[in-house]
Amino acid sequence: MNWWLFSPEIVVAVVALLVLLADLALPDAASRKGLGVLGLVGAAVALVLTVFFALHGAAPAEVFGGLLAFDTIAVWFKLISLATACLVFLFSFSYLDRWVGRRQGEFYWLILTALLGMMVTAAAQELVTIYVGIELISLSFYALVGYRRDEKESTEAALKYFLLGSFAIALWLYGAAIIYGLSGSTYLVEIAAGLSGNFGPLAFAGMFLMIVGFGFKTGLAPFHMWVPDTYQGAPTPATAYLAVGSKAAAFAVFMRVMATAFGSHYADWAVLLGIIAAVTMTWGNIAALPQTNIKRMLAYSGVAHAGYTLVGIVALSSVGASAVMFYLFGYLFANLGAFAVVVAFANRTGSETIGDYAGLRWRSPFLALGLAICLLSLAGIPPLAGFLGKLYLFVGAMQQGGWLMTLVIIAAINSAVSLFYYVNVIRTMYFLPARDETPIAAPAGVSVTVVVAMAGVLLASFYFQPIISSLGAGAAAVLSLVP
Amino acid sequence: MDGLFYQISFWVLAVITVLSALMVTTMQNLTRGVIFLVFFFLGIGGLYFLMQAEFLALVQVVVYAGAVAVLFAFVIMLTPRVAEREIKQSLNLGAGFILAALFLALVLSLLLGQPWPELAAPGAGTITLGQLGQALLGEYLLPFELVSVVLLVALVGAVVIAGRNAGRGERKS
Q1: Does any CB of chain A come closer than 8 Å to the CB of residue B164?
Q2: Measured by CB atoms within 10 angstroms of the end CB, which terminus of chain B is less buried, N or C?
């Protein structure tokens, strides 16, 4: 095998171990900030390597004898995970400063191990590897979510996430065991071959249980019950990481499993996933409307976005798959930018209530502009990245026609509803008078994140054509496995 | 393989396993729960033996029934006042029971109605230790190595959540 293709994962794993060892070796009183910088450099090196693969279109290959794929979908989702991790590192510095006395070294180590899990999960095409990758992500996040363990709400968030997450992955494993028993293989391609003649009710049950597991990880209704509490209680950088990185990796493997292993039984699951998508986006948007805590609002909006993204998988076409990939790319910048502003604001004021954002335009014009652009992108306002992502998702579904048109109409109505709560935040920031006039200074890490987020949201839409077309070709190659 | 003795052993082990799993989840006393957990692990080990996975069965008995259960027992004994505390297991026993029964009925009806394909067993049904090692360090090298990272994450995560409050990096230098 070509070890060069596996080099980003190796870099991340080695840097993670270095961080852990250095944390152990450093004297107790020493600052841990250098470890964060080390982690950031490691993730950045891996990101550069991955961007190199993405630009030079390395030929599709298999790593570790087919356990991992090396194709457009894998490289693209690795890129999303790595970019997320880099930005999360940037704005966790200022966040962790508030929590002096915590184990910062461990925080950076857990971010890196979760990153390794995401990279493996995004590329895995064998059930055991998928399971280990998902568990690596999950275990890292259980600890990250419960990091502020002296806070009751953080512990509650971690416990809820842990109990429900273990339950969901147990259901997933049961489904995977049934599928293995019926098909005789754990490799997705061979599962498709093994199931081709005998896709009975039991195979459907196994597939359904796996959908439940993936639905939990991506936050699809009705498996999203953990999302609001966990997002609200977790440390904000961990929330942002969970909302983007974990979700993107789960969507990558979800799409791969549905397309490769169950692609020829499309008719059996498309309607089911279509209903889940419709319920998810409606539930997420309606629940987001009355929220007063901005993290909770973003949590429900994340649920709604998972619903939109699922439309691309339901369409299961080259356009649909590339739309999922591009949509999550835009979602990455918009969401991380929003969470970075939340970190900066909470650092100064200690508040996460939307009402307290009143008059942010005067207190910090930069942060207000950043949050406004990110929220508009999430709402899907042209010409931002969120709009184009949504457009491609809808086009992908419309190409299939039939009942998918209904889904597109539901999604369009939902987009209009979502505008209400996004614009409400912008109205609060720009048109309501500030109760407290003290200016809010953005820490350097947050400023960089917000600038990158704004650039990503704006540039992705102006330079989208080459991105989308390269994604479309690559996704079509992966999906050609589908008859 | 389908002799009467095999059938009887299977059913005895299956009943022991399922009943003790039920007891673990419903026991209000933690110490008793751990004892039933040992029976559960032993039942699973027995089932592995019946499936001719001798090594797995031994590992199950030594690691789970031995080490893990003993560790649990120690934790319970060393934690003040947790051993005698009655722990309410569920607030919604009725709803949980109905849901579990429905799920069981559904899965059983599907499982029993399904003809299972014969899987080609390598080496006429028995897998030697050598084959197992070759699979772990050959074909499945990547997940095998990743599991070690998973264990390390679990270890560090437990320290983050439950370790002493006076951590390293506490004071700004």
Answers
A1: no
A2: N
